[in-house]
Amino acid sequence: MSVPLLSLLLACSAPYTDDTGAPPGPGGSDGGGGGWVTTDGGSGDGGGGWSTGTVQDGDGDGYTVEEGDCDDGDGAVHPGGDETSCDGKDNDCDDRVDEDFDRDDYEPNDDDGVNLGELAEEESALLLAWLWPETDQDRYLFYVEDGDWSWFDVELWLYDVPEGADYALELWQVEDADGDYVGLVDSADEEADGGEELVNYGGSTGFDDSGWYEAVVRSNDGAACDTAYTLQILVGSWR
Q: Count of CB atoms within 10 A of residue 145's CB?
């Protein structure tokens, strides 16, 4: 074999390097963002080697794509990210959005209603709250005093239902004047998209309707953590 041909073969078999002796990419002087990483810290002293891969933290949040960062261009998004704000992002990369939104002062009232106490004659309670996520249910307990021969009325007004959502409204009597559970006494689900709902429960003339009631707001479809609904509870009981 001639000398020129031998030199050519040796040149072809040698690894490609730049003028620093390192392959192109993060460790090379060509400054490329290519896919080379070193297993010896980039020293090139033979303690390791070069391999292909991308180990970079594009948004500086301490997590790479390989480590589970589902948006390496947003520093607020990474495994273990804060989900308590309503920002429409999957901040903790668990395929759920805003699931830990720190909703309203009445939470948690999904299973046990928040106690509003006794609502006296002609008294009104105005509540501002969020229904989120879609599986959330908001429950509000209140007591109403009635008599055998009085006119009795409980009205629930639900306003500001988010567009694209269908909320339902229910009134339950969970304990009557004798201490017994009664159950659902009225409900409303008229509007399929946004709108208002009204429950108007008149009780019974000549009967004591005193007791603990529970107003329930729940979602049939849709919910929004950026839109608060308004629930107004009106109570009238006159002798």
A: 17
Is the separation of the CB atoms in 121 and 238 below 8 Å?
yes
Amino acid at 193: D
Six-digit token string for 226: 């950026």
Tell me the three state secondary structure of residue 69.
coil
At 178-225, the pLDDT tens digits run: 999 999 999 999 878 888 999 999 988 788 899 999 999 999 999 999
Q: In angstroms, rounded to a whole number, what is the distance separating the alpha carbons of residues 185 and 199?
A: 10
Give the pLDDT score at 236.
80
Q: What is the pLDDT of residue 54?
A: 55
Specify the residue for token string 């400054």.
31
**Predicted pLDDT of residue 189:** 94
Distance in angstroms (rounded) separating the CA atoms of residues 134 and 64: 31
Distance CA 59, CA 72 (A): 5
Phi/psi at 67 (5° precision) = -95, 5
Which residues are registered as beta bridge partners of 197?
158
* Number of Cβ atoms within 10 Å of the Cβ of 29: 12
Phi and psi for 65 in degrees, rounded to 5?
A: -60, -40
pTM: 0.70
Neighbours of 5 (CB within 10 A): 9
